[in-house]
Amino acid sequence: MSEFVLPPENVLRPGVALCVDLDGTLTKSDTLHDSLLAMLRQKPMNILQIPKWIAEGKASFKRHITSSVELDVEHLPYNRPLLEYLRMEHGRGRAIYLATAADKTLADRVANYIGIFAGTLASDGNINLAGGNKLAAFEQHFGKGNFCYIGNAKPDAKLLAACEAPMIANPHRALTARMKSAGTVAAARFDDQTPVLKSWLRAVRLHQWAKNVLLFIPLLLAHQVNAATVAGALTAFFSFGFCASATYIINDLLDIEADRRHPRKRRRPFAAGDLSMFSGFLNIGGLFLLSLLLAVALPHIVNAMPGNYTLSDPYSFLGWLALYTVATLTYSFYLKKKLLLDVFVLSGLYTVRLLTGSAATGVPISPWLAGFSVFFFLSLAFVKRFSELESLRERGGAITNGRGYFVSDLEQLRALGTGAAYASVVVMAVYISNPETAQLYHHTGRLWLVVPVLLLWLSQVWMLTSRGEMHDDPVVWACTDKRSLLLGVLMAAVVLWAMWP
After folding, report:
1. Out of 67, 394, 412, 457, which residue is the most buried by the measure of CB atoms under 10 Å away?
2. Residues 409 and 337 in one domain
3. What's the pLDDT tens digit per position in 286-331?
4. Number of structural domains, the chain?
């Protein structure tokens, strides 16, 4: 929600300097955290130097981090209502200063980009300009009380109490509580943030859990639906979902700068500054823990179900879950930058879900299903990469950010993707003709109706992708597209009809 209460024009006397904090105030994120994440991605070996830098003091630590990477100040998540107000005051001729505990090198770059500041007051490698140090700097530069300050965190309470017409932006609860106890009343408040619950629901990407329906496919196609297999698949669904959500957060944290330059991804909670890095890492740990607890409990849950059903390998699911986690993290840190290999890894993660579902239920996966999934999901992975390149082409770009793809690769990707799509249909056709299929279906001939429906859906996906209309993950898109849902219901009805005596 973006809103602010515009203070009266005479709330600030002429000549009073207007000072604004950077981290959490002018920008919704903490630039030190942003720099740390950029360093983790660009220069991971520098992480080993952090203990040494911290021992040298906060100001020195910030200087080292800032000098290690060059943060993209143009695409930082700025507080839009506050920036609008600052530009308004600048137009009125007021002197505005960027006053921050961030390193001066970064503060100067931000100030130069925005272009409205008369100067910057910031940490210089020796003195950390926060709390009492910042107040002393204000009084030295502007005189006691002859300044206005806009802040957001608890350490800003003393400065707000000592200034004229104190203002706040996206304030922490600790700050508002401290101001209330001190009797400090804000002259204006600038809010630009999405509700926390809504942000977290977006960060864990619950809509992506739709992919985990693949865990149920082995038991459904093998016609092994009973209390034990359903319990195993459900437990695996939630365990896999928590694990996947944790890896999505890791990926978003590592991709913050790239996401901020993307027309749609810049709205993701971490890129938009609605959630902090520390809260992200805390929730990563919690999600992984929930996933692990469910994975360990899975064989006990299955064995407790009515009947004599037991898993032949009770910890096979845990192994597949670990493989998925390692593969996903390796993709986030390294493989996503490798030409074509990234696409094969993405498609492989779908197939891993099928294998994980088999391990969770004890139902062997059909080699036909495995073969179909390899080609089918490879095609969808190419869809995702093609749509990103198409979006880049529309924006006038030529090469993806660190991915190794050029806009000129579009036609080749289309050929590879459509080829894989129709190869999956061929596997489906051969499966229908296989004598083993007759053991599962009373009327295998009816299954041939699935083939044209599948061809229609895959052709539709690639047509929309070629037109630049596929903006989401194709699996997630299929769960919301009415025509896709209708075709899915039609295919399910055909399968049930083929099973009917």
Report:
1. 457
2. yes
3. 999 999 999 999 988 988 888 767 777 778 899 999 999 999 989 8
4. 2
